Amino acid sequence: MNSAYNVIIRPVVSERSFDLMSQNKYTFEVAKQAPKEEIAAAVEKLFGVHVLKVNTINVKPKTKRVRYVAGQTRSWKKAIVTVAEGDSIELFAQQSAE
C-alpha cells in the first residue's frame, strides 16, 4: 500500500460503532490486503492519535435477491482501532454530537 488514504477507505457508521466509541474504539472499512501494522500507521498519520491495538474482521458477503435473480453483497475488511486514553478522532466526534 502506498498512501494512508489507500488503506483507510471509510469510517463505519452504525449503532455498534458509536457504542464502541465510549471505549476509545473506532471502526473503519480498510483495504482487503492491508495488514494490521499498516492500518495502525495510517490511522496515526491521518488523525494524529496513538493507536494501541487493531482488530480486523473479514466481512463475508450476504446472499440477496432482486426479483428472481440471486446475487451477493460485496465482501470487505473491517478494522476496529483502539486509541490511547484521551485521544479521539474528530470525524466521529462531530457526528455523535448531533
From TrEMBL:
Organism: Parolsenella catena
The entry's keywords: Ribonucleoprotein, Ribosomal protein, RNA-binding, rRNA-binding
This protein's GO CC annotations: ribonucleoprotein complex; ribosome
Descriptive protein name: Large ribosomal subunit protein uL23
GO terms classed as biological process: translation
Role noted for this protein: One of the early assembly proteins it binds 23S rRNA. One of the proteins that surrounds the polypeptide exit tunnel on the outside of the ribosome. Forms the main docking site for trigger factor binding to the ribosome.
NCBIfam families: PRK05738.2-4
Assembly behavior: Part of the 50S ribosomal subunit. Contacts protein L29, and trigger factor when it is bound to the ribosome.
Tree of life domain: Bacteria
InterPro entries, alphabetized: Nucleotide-bd_a/b_plait_sf (IPR012677), Ribosomal_uL23-like (IPR013025), Ribosomal_uL23/eL15/eS24_sf (IPR012678)
Protein family: Belongs to the universal ribosomal protein uL23 family.
Any one GO MF annotation of this record: structural constituent of ribosome
